[in-house]
Amino acid sequence: MMLHEDSKFSRIYLLNLVNRVRKLNLGFERDCLYYRAYGLLKLADYKEAKKIALLAEQMQPNNPQSKQLLCIIDKSLKKDGLLGMATAGGAVLALGGLAVAGIVAIIATKRR
Fold it and tell me: pLDDT tier at 73 (50, 70, 90 boundaries)?
């Protein structure tokens, strides 16, 4: 648990550092946006990461690094969405199973 917390702290620290460097306006705008999007991706904030990565891509449309990051973010969004759907589907299936078991129990008690 401690390792995960340290990792999350490090990612947040990186995001804050990138934001400070970006405000200094030293010509690293695209790089700062890229690393900010990467940090957000690692924190599983996929929607914000995609928004920032798109800004980085607009600055240099032919940059393969930005295109690759966008691809990774899209895959993560799809995976996260599918996981959410599977979890919801499992919950619905479990509730349906409980309902059927309840109905069977009621019928069984009435027949006695």
Answer: very high
- Taking CA atoms, 75 is separated from 8, 67, 79, 103, in Å, by 21, 12, 6, 42
Residue 85 tokens, joined: 């759907």
Tell me the residue length of the chain: 112
Q: What is the C-alpha to C-alpha distance for residues 17 and 76, in angstroms, rounded to an integer?
A: 24
Quote the CA–CA distance of 53 and 33 in Å, as a whole number: 7
Burial class (CB in 10 A: 0-12, 13-18, 19+), 52: buried
What distance in Å separates the CA atoms of residue 95 and residue 29, rounded to the nearest whole number?
50
Structure tokens at 57: 């891509």
> Could you please report the per-residue DSSP string of 38-81?
HHHHHTT-HHHHHHHHHHHHHHSTT-HHHHHHHHHHHHHHHHHH
Residue 93: pLDDT over 80: no
DSSP class of 19: H
